[in-house]
Structures are given as C-alpha cells and as structure tokens.
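User: Um, what's this?
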Amino acid sequence: MANTDKDTLQKYKNQFFKFMKKNNILPDYLKNLENGIFEEKDFSKFQEKYFITDYIDTAFVWAETAQGYDFWYKINRKWNNSIRKRQNSVRSENKSQFFEFLRARGILSVYLKNFKKDLWKADFGGFQKKYFKENYINAAFDWGKTDQGSIFWSEINELWRVELLRGKLKNKNQPKYIFNSTKGENNV
C-alpha cells in the first residue's frame, strides 16, 4: 500500500466501502474476493498489498464472476474516476515527489527527453490528469523506442512503485542508474 499507516488504510477502506455500498455491490465484491484465485481473501490484508487504484482490478478475475468482465470493468473505471477527482489537490506534491525520485537517480532529463508531449497533446500536468502516480513511468512513453530500452525503464518503474509502496523516498541510499549507450547496457 502506498501509505501503510493504520489511519490511512482505514480511511481508504471507508472510502472504498462507501463507494461499493452506494453502487450496491459490496457483498458481491467481498464474495468474489473470498472465492478468487489470489492469496489474500480478507479485504484488510488485501488492501495492505495493493494501491487504492487496484482494489477492483487486482482483487479477482472479473470474467470468472457471476457479474462478468464488462460489469467489473465499468465499476473499476467508475471507481478510478472517483479517485482521480480527489487527486486534483495532490498533483503538485506528486509531481515534486516523482521528479525528486528521477533527479536522485540522475535520470530526470532522460525521462523528460523521452516524454512525448505530442503523444498526449499536453504537458506533464495534462499527463498527470490522465494517469495515477503509479503510472508516471509505464504510461509516459514507449520504453522500447528509447536509447535506454525496455529493461532499463522496467527496472526504474519497479523502483518507483516500490518507493510508493514504502510511502517514502530514500534518495541518498538509492543507486543511480546509468545507461551506457556505447555498450548498450544498464549499469548501477
């Protein structure tokens, strides 16, 4: 979970359950979670491992439920849209945190160079409106078309998600990733 303190988890649980009750689907959701193929069957334990944006799309296989794939797709989209509206107030903080993460690894300029404004027809602020902070790397550009390559960006993306899960940045102790374009390999 992006923030593992108990107050935040309880706040997220209340917010999510309120949404599910409002849409008359909380019992169905909990039953599907319990009967699903994944390890975590209890919501409180489940939510400790996943971002608030993943509460529906990682809980169970939608197509294997009585409600079906289309139903859960629509609910997941509605849920994420409701979260996105609440995120407006934290975008500036997210951008600072993300840029600090990239700067600490010496790759802010590389990221911004690869970031394709023309693809999104917006600057980074416009990009932020469309994507959650967990997706600032994996949705920004086609990794395979960069000088650094897919493996490099996959590793950076994983580091970013780990930092979000920890709920804090540890910039001073993190290795800088350096791409050696002449050798075509990533170095730590």
